[in-house]
């Protein structure tokens, strides 16, 4: 999870970009101070240096693109979206899992417990 310092710098950089202002450490610091957020002194410079020479617009657009490092990973065992007509197999697997869960629950209702 991102720290408050990191988030403050990210939001400041996004505000500067949205207003068409060059992203510098001094401007990030100014926005953070205006927001009354306490940040370690190295964060604004680190973010300004990391964004230097990069188009923030292209970074934002590529963040949600397929195959990007920030894209969400598929669910475990899911293997991504099913192909056309492949949804039936997933439903069958869910039904099998539900049946297994029901049979396990019925074992608990045999009228006695472990410590009875």
TrEMBL record:
<protein>
    <recommendedName>
        <fullName>Large ribosomal subunit protein P1</fullName>
    </recommendedName>
</protein>
<dbReference type="GO" id="GO:0006414">
    <property type="term" value="P:translational elongation"/>
</dbReference>
<dbReference type="InterPro" id="IPR038716">
    <property type="entry name" value="P1/P2_N_sf"/>
</dbReference>
<keyword id="KW-0689">Ribosomal protein</keyword>
<dbReference type="GO" id="GO:0030295">
    <property type="term" value="F:protein kinase activator activity"/>
</dbReference>
<comment type="function">
    <text>Plays an important role in the elongation step of protein synthesis.</text>
</comment>
<dbReference type="Pfam" id="PF00428">
    <property type="entry name" value="Ribosomal_60s"/>
</dbReference>
<feature type="compositionally biased region" description="Basic and acidic residues">
    <location>
        <begin position="88"/>
        <end position="102"/>
    </location>
</feature>
<comment type="similarity">
    <text>Belongs to the eukaryotic ribosomal protein P1/P2 family.</text>
</comment>
<feature type="region of interest" description="Disordered">
    <location>
        <begin position="62"/>
        <end position="116"/>
    </location>
</feature>
<dbReference type="GO" id="GO:0002181">
    <property type="term" value="P:cytoplasmic translation"/>
</dbReference>
<feature type="compositionally biased region" description="Gly residues">
    <location>
        <begin position="66"/>
        <end position="87"/>
    </location>
</feature>
<dbReference type="GO" id="GO:0022625">
    <property type="term" value="C:cytosolic large ribosomal subunit"/>
</dbReference>
<dbReference type="GO" id="GO:0043021">
    <property type="term" value="F:ribonucleoprotein complex binding"/>
</dbReference>
<dbReference type="InterPro" id="IPR027534">
    <property type="entry name" value="Ribosomal_P1/P2"/>
</dbReference>
<keyword id="KW-0687">Ribonucleoprotein</keyword>
<dbReference type="GO" id="GO:0003735">
    <property type="term" value="F:structural constituent of ribosome"/>
</dbReference>
């Amino acid at each position: 999870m991102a720290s408050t310092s990191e988030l403050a710098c990210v939001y400041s950089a996004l505000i500067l970009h949205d207003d068409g202002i060059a992203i510098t450490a001094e401007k990030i610091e100014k926005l953070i101070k205006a927001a009354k957020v306490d940040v370690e002194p190295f964060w604004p410079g680190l973010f300004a240096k990391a964004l230097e020479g990069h188009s923030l617009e292209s970074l934002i657009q590529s963040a949600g693109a397929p195959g990007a490092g920030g894209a969400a990973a598929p669910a475990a065992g899911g293997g991504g979206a099913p192909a056309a007509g492949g949804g039936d197999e997933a439903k069958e697997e869910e039904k099998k899992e539900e049946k297994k869960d029901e049979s396990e629950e019925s074992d608990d209702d045999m009228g006695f417990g472990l410590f009875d």
